[in-house]
Amino acid sequence: MKSIQTELKQLNKNLHKMIAAENPILYSAAEKLFSAGGKRIRPTIIFLISKLMNKGQIISTEHKRLAEITEIIHTASLVHDDIIDNCDKRRGIETVHNVFNNKIAVLAGDFLFAQSSWYLANLNNLDVVKNISKIITDFAEGEVRQGMISFDCQISIEEYIEKSFYKTASLLACSCKATIILNKNNKNTQNDFYLYGKHLGLAFQIIDDILDLTGLSKDLGKPAGSDLINGNLTAPLIFTLNKNPKLQKMIDKEFQFKENIDEAVNIIKNTNAIQKAKDIAEEHIQLAMHIIKSKYTNTNSKELLLMTYHLINRIN
């Protein structure tokens, strides 16, 4: 997005400053993640909403800081995710626990959560603090739920969507709402953008889960099929389960061999499960776009709508 390139560049610089730590190992572990880059989806959405809701298209200092805070929270969650899922790579580089060890990685994640909380408190807005704090609780809830249904063939689409909300959509929903709170808009507008972020987040997670099966490892920045290896049963697999008893047997044996993963991916690809999952993501994208189109269309809304629709087009 050309209109916010300056803000995104400054965000990247500020992130490095915000994770300053006296302990060099702790700093190195945290800094490694930000050096790897990332899509910066969450800050981009915050910047675009800020522009949409301000007549002068001004992105305030508070909104810039909120964008930085949400990116730190997101990054902290990735550190802990990688330990739980035992991922070797993230964004194409070795994960923190692989370079250091699990103990350092846990502490690095905790440090990032602590730093985000400190900067959050310094926004001096109690409603925003309450709103963003819920995200960290939801992350933990999501991880516990995912752990409880690992390799569980009885998982329903509804349970999958609920888990996806806690793990991904909550961050976007709450950060979109916080953007509006900082803008001093009313409760109805806050709720609109909460729902916008929720639908966007759910679509994003479903698309990510599809890409885990259809993408190449070099493009994903991590091994393809990681979800299957870790027992995270996602929408395409859930839609395939009832049609293929062999797949259920492989899940019951927790994909003992790499060949099982490859075979499972091929089974899924030979059904309409990926298209069905994409249809659900498309539905959530349309719901998100409807909120903007029905109430908030102006000259500044085009980029936000383009960004929203871009997420569904990540799949070829």
From TrEMBL:
Gene3D superfamilies noted in UniProt: Farnesyl Diphosphate Synthase
This protein's record includes keyword Chloroplast: yes
Alphabetized Pfam families for the sequence: polyprenyl_synt
GO-annotated biological processes: isoprenoid biosynthetic process; quinone biosynthetic process
Keywords annotated in UniProt: Chloroplast, Isoprene biosynthesis, Magnesium, Metal-binding, Plastid, Transferase
Cofactor: Mg(2+)
One MF annotation (Gene Ontology) recorded for this entry: prenyltransferase activity
Record PROSITE patterns: POLYPRENYL_SYNTHASE_1, POLYPRENYL_SYNTHASE_2
UniProt cross-references to InterPro entries, sorted A to Z: Isoprenoid_synthase_dom_sf, Polyprenyl_synt, Polyprenyl_synt_CS
Family per record: Belongs to the FPP/GGPP synthase family.
This protein's name: Prenyl transferase
Species whose genome carries this gene: Symphyocladiella dendroidea
Gene name linked to the record: preA
